Amino acid sequence: MTPISPAPTNSQRHVYEVTELNQKIKKLLEGSFPFIWITGEISNFRTPSSGHCYFTLKDARSQIGAVMFRTQARALKFKPEDGLSVIGLGRISVYEPRGAYQVILEYLEPKGIGGLQIAFEKLKQQLSDEGLFDEGHKQALPLVPKKISIVTSPTGAAVRDFINVAQRRFPNMALEVVPASVQGERSPEEIVRALDLVNTIGKTDVIVLARGGGSIEDLCAFNDERVARAIFSSRIPVVSAVGHETDFTIADFVADLRAPTPSAAAEIIVPSKEKLKKGLDEINQKLYKTISFKLELLEKLVLEFTNRIVHPQRRLQDMRLRLDDYSMRLVATVTDILARKRDHAAFGHHMLINLSPGKTAATMKDRVRQCRVSMCARMIQIIRDGRAATEGNAAMLEALNPMAILQRGYSITRTLPGQSIVRSARQVKMDQRLEIMLGQGRLTVDVKGRAADGH
Fold first, then answer.
1. Which residues make beta-bridge pairs with 197?
2. From the CB of residue 265, how many other CB atoms can be counted at a distance below 10 Å?
3. Does residue 179 surpass a pLDDT of 70?
4. Closest C-alpha to 101, from 36, 149, 148, 154
5. How does it assemble (predicted)?
6. Would you tell me how many other CB atoms lie within 10 Å of the CB of residue 247?
7. Cis bond leading into 97, ω under 30°?
8. What pLDDT, on the 0 to 100 scale, is given for residue 1?
């Protein structure tokens, strides 16, 4: 039979106050669940005059209180009501006065769209962490592509819009439509097959992944991981032209370039033939003017150099005269420098004789001897003054030592467990545990009686 452990004494157990326990629970819950996604059915929805939304989230077996403050509630794009299934992002919070925990929601949406959105965000974060969105992997588009392959539905409006714009900008541009369904369960597989086919043939400069706008369910194929990895693996630059201007898909982030619409993709990829012709004409004119200017400048330089050319014999005569002049100037300069150096050396020799280091050394020895005696005397005095000051401070510290006061019969009383010094009988309660510090040792006592102000 297992023996029963004795009950802990008052000094071993810790009794929580209600507020203290609620604070510890609040810290534990809020630290463990900073932000969470939660789904459930709204029940008991109410909005008081403050504008904050209070309701209960429940499922078949349990429920939890929820709050959405006025600022976040104003941003909702739907009207919450009882019975509506929702998905929300929030954090766990404990309301200490009632000891109740609840979810404070920052974001809320109907459950149907929320599941797809959560999957979208999860895949987006995964691919981003793998580096599929990095700008370093993006390929540059050719200035004038020879051939463009459009991966899309051949019967959709997107391909017609792209072809119309492309033919208007560059009439003889080679365009190729690679059929693939852009909606439905088979769509991701067909898009991946089309991208692989175009890369295998390798006779295309740009691939355009095109589709018109739609809901998040309609664009599901372009949020597929297989499509994203096929775009990333493509050796040919891929332009994503999916949806309207406000629609973003995973394909947009992985592609080398994102166009808001198929028509905009054609505007970006296909240059204007007329503008190119005008640009070439302007370049030809500038090149002709530049070459003409350079030729005129060179002709002037040739003429100028021709006029400046001197007969070699005359130049040799000039160089001989200049060499003779430099030789005479060099001899005069060297002679002058040698004379000044000689005078400087004689002056230095005279100064060395008059300023013998023996005299200076004797004077410096006397000064060093005097400084040594003075320094030793000063150091002895400083040591004596320091010793006297140290002894005085030690005596003062000993006089002010509180333990010295306790040795004279006094004591210090502190409360337990707070260890506050007791200065008045009013500070303690009956049966309160006290600690008495004596000159030698300590006592732990319980208050059995008290008297204030000597009564």
1. none
2. 28
3. yes
4. 36
5. Heterooligomer composed of large and small subunits.
6. 19
7. no
8. 46
Q: What is the mean pLDDT of residues 355-370?
A: 78
If one counts every other C-beta atom within 10 angstroms of the C-beta of residue 161, the result is 19
Determine the Cα–Cα distance for residues 247 and 241; give it in Å rounded to an integer.
Answer: 10
Token couple for 145: 């592509």
Tokens of 14: 């810790």
Burial of 198 (0-12, 13-18, 19+ CB in 10 A): buried
pLDDT of 348:
80
Confidence bin at 131 (pLDDT 50/70/90) = very high
Q: What percent of the chain has pLDDT over 70?
A: 91
133-150 tens-digit pLDDT: 899 999 999 999 999 999
Question: Is residue 2 predicted with pLDDT exceeding 60?
Answer: no
Q: State the average pLDDT over residues 314-333.
A: 83
| Tokens found for residue 194 | 């089309």
Q: Can you give the pLDDT at residue 358? A: 67
What would the two tokens of residue 301 be? 């330089």
β-bridge partners, 178: 151
> Are the C-beta atoms of 444 and 433 separated by less than 8 Å?
yes
Q: Which tokens belong to 5? A: 């452990």
18-118: what fold? Answer: OB fold (Dihydrolipoamide Acetyltransferase, E2P) (2.40.50)
Q: Which residues contact 148 (CB under 8 A, 6 or more apart)?
A: 166, 173, 174, 175, 176, 204, 205, 206, 207, 208, 269, 270
What is the signed CA dihedral for 298, 300, 306, 309, rounded to 10 degrees?
A: -90
Q: What is the CATH number of domain 135-271?
A: 3.40.50.10550
Token readout for 132 is 């599929």
Q: Give the chain's end-to-end CA distance (angstroms, integer).
A: 56
And the tokens for 329? 């100037």
How far, in whole angstroms, is CA 42 from its chain's centroid?
A: 38
pLDDT at 362 over 60: yes
Q: Give 376's contacts (C-beta < 8 A, 6+ positions apart).
A: none
Tokens of 334: 């060297």
Instruction: Tell me how far apart the alpha carbons of residues 314 and 306 are, in angstroms, rounded to a whole number.
Output: 16
pLDDT in tens, 272-318: 888 888 989 899 999 999 998 999 899 888 888 777 776 677 777 77
Edge-to-edge strands of the sheet including 442-446? Answer: 412-415, 433-437, 442-446
Please tell me the distance from the alpha carbon of residue 274 to that of residue 169, in angstroms, as a whole number.
8
8 confidence band (pLDDT: 50, 70, 90): low
Alpha-carbon span 322 to 419, nearest angstrom:
104
* C-alpha dist (Å) from residue 32 to 20, 87, 91: 18, 20, 10
* Residue 270 C-beta-side C-alpha neighbours within 13 Å: 28
Please name the residue that has the structure tokens 């500070």. Answer: 427
